[in-house]
Every structure is written in C-alpha cells, then in structure tokens.
Amino acid sequence: MLPYTPLHHLLLEAEPGYPEVLVMTSGNLSEEPIAYQDADAGERLSPLADGFLLHNREIHMRTDDSVVRVFEGAPYIQRRARGYAPDPILISEELPPILATGAELKNTFCLTHRDYAFLSHHIGDLENYETLQSFEEGIQHYQRLFRVQPEMLACDMHPNYLATRYAQERAAREDLPLVQVQHHHAHLAACLADNRWTSEDVLIGLSLDGTGYGTDGAIWGGEVLLGGYTGYQRLFHLKYAPLPGGDLSVRRPARMALAHLWSAGIDWEADLPPVEDLCMEERIALRGQLQHHLNTPDTSSMGRLFDAASALMGIRQLATYEGQAAIEMEALVDADETARYTFDLHGDEIDPAPVWQALIADWRAGLPQPRMAARFH
Fold first, then answer.
1. Which of 58, 167, 254, 367 could cross-link to 153 by cystine, CB 3.0-4.6 Å?
2. Contact at 8 Å (CB) between 290 and 262?
C-alpha cells in the first residue's frame, strides 16, 4: 500500500529495532464495521491489539479503506471509500432526489441530486447488526450533509435483503414511490452512469459476480445483458448448476466442484482433488442431495464457477474468507501461458462442461497449476 498519512512514514522509519514490514488491516472484527470511536475500539479490539494509538481529534464518520488496483497503467477502483467518498459522480442527466439502498453484501447506498450521484463509502455486509446500524446512520448523515430529502427509493429485488426491507418500510412510512431493480441490471446501469452514457444509450454488458436474485428465482451471477437504464434483455447466461446447501458450498469449494461435475455429467473419480477432500459419508450425502434436489437452488454464478475450478486444480477445497479460492488461483496464473479453455454455447446457455473436461485432462497429464489457472482465466 502507499502511505497516505505522515504517521505511516513515522512508523516505517529505518531505525534500529523498527520492523521491516508492517501488516495493515482495518480496525474491526470479521463482518463488523470499522471502529472509529476510542471507547468502541477499546471494547471490541482489545482481544486483538496489544496497544492503541489515539488522537485528540475525534473521527466524525467511519470510512473504510479504499481498494484500487492498477491494470495496464490505469487505476481501477474496487472499493470506493476513504479519499473518494463522498465526492459526487457526475451523471449525464438530471434526476429527482432518489435514495438507492444497494445490495446486502459489500453494501453502498447512493443519493442523487440533479446531475450528481453521491455514492457512499463502503458499508459492508448488512447481515451484521452493527453494520446495519452503520448503514442507517450513514444515510441520515448523507441526507444532512447534502441537504437531500429523497422523493423516490430504489432497492434490489431480493425479498430478504435488509436494504430492500429498509427501502420498503421507509417508502410505506413516507408514502414514497419504490422501484425494485434486478441485481445485474443495476450493475449494467451503474457502468452506464459511471461512463456518463444517456438514457437513450443501449449496450451489451457482462455482469459477473457471486450472487444476485434473478427474475426466475434462481441465483444469477454469470450474465450477458443487452439494455440501458430503464430495461434489459438477458441474452446469455452460464448454464445453471445446483448450489447444494447454499452458503455451505460457498465455504466449501470442493462441494461446488462436485456439483458442477454432476451438472456436466462427469463422474466423481476417486483421485480428483475435491473428491479426495470429502469423506465417503459427505459424498454419499451430497449425491443424495443432488439426486433429490434437496436445498439445491440453481445458480449461474461466475464466482461459484471460479470456486469449482480452484478446487478441481487442487488449489483450495475449504475457504476461510470470502473469495479465497479465486484469489489463490489468480495469484498462481502463468502470464506466459497462451492456451485457453473454451465453453460451448447451447441456445442462451454458456456450458462449462468442455472446461471441466479439458481441466481434468490437464490435471491428469500433470500440467502445473499456474498454467491451468491461466487457461481457465
């Protein structure tokens, strides 16, 4: 990371006894919002920290670290927070005052005023009570700061998202119109707004992520959409695969790999890494679950496809943090590899079966993981 305060320079001064490396992380427990008040930090973080460096100037509003990656010389913002928020994004057309409440995971909200979109800092996952409180406090803070009173609310289509429930309850309480937007259409519209396209513009967009509620009730995440701000058409999508046990398979990439093999009609051969990872009892239970469609929602998620690939390559069978399987696979990529795995296209379905067949063949041939990872990417 780059130092962004003089304090970082002081901590890293090359003096005898100073550490050569510092590991930086935000001051919060997993899934909780960052601590920004001294008393709260002492109460929540004392089990983790040996000491606290405090300041006599109070922090008024919690704001997490921004995350930016550089690709081909250009910066790409992955998490827009400190240093960027609440600087507005200029959009192409004037809008009425709208509050958009965002999704459940990695939440941000947005307030619009004329041709400005005030996108919030990174809030986090709303399933945690403290994070939900931070979400509600952040909305009130932005409304006061920018003197915007929403005349309309927008939210995700997922009926169980806490951000959706907040929008529904507030719309009913304040008698405001409410618009529910499909998750991946929102991704496409956000890309349009970020590039200042107009309401007349239409484009083909790839909307790839881990999860999003689809109009058919399935879990979407590997979508090719044609559309603009007001509507879209789903042109193509990853072929549905079962997600056995829901979040359990997110934490266990080995289960996701076997579910994808099941969907592709490929045998669970005993020497495959994800098969070896699961004991006989687990495999029997998983097979029965898939055969009888017990808690196996359909998903077209690109995130789960990456999990399955990582497990089949023998990289990661159990995830201890979000995205671990995909992150470790990406880190292994051999940049000199030129071969690629290819998909089949059946109607509007993008079928990964040829990818699994080629990947397994490469694994049996002893192809190094970095080359397999590059071919998958």
1. 167
2. yes
**Separation between Cα atoms, residue 286 and residue 82, nearest integer Å:** 44
Any domain includes 62:
no
Q: Which residue, 204, 207, 216, 213, is CA-closest to 180?
A: 213
Helix, strand, coil fractions of the chain, as percent rounded to 5: 35, 20, 45
Q: What are phi and psi of 128, to 5 degrees?
A: -90, 135
Q: Is residue 95 part of a domain?
A: yes
- CA separation for the pair 196, 189 (Å, rounded): 10
- 246-257 tens-digit pLDDT: 999 999 999 999
Distance of alpha carbon 159 from its chain centroid, rounded?
19
**How far is the first Cα of the chain from the last one, in angstroms, to the nearest whole number?**
26
CB atoms within 10 A of CB 210: 19
Q: Check: CB of residue 209 under 8 Å from CB of residue 186.
A: no
Is the predicted pLDDT of residue 14 greater than 70, yes or no?
no
pTM, two decimals, is: 0.91
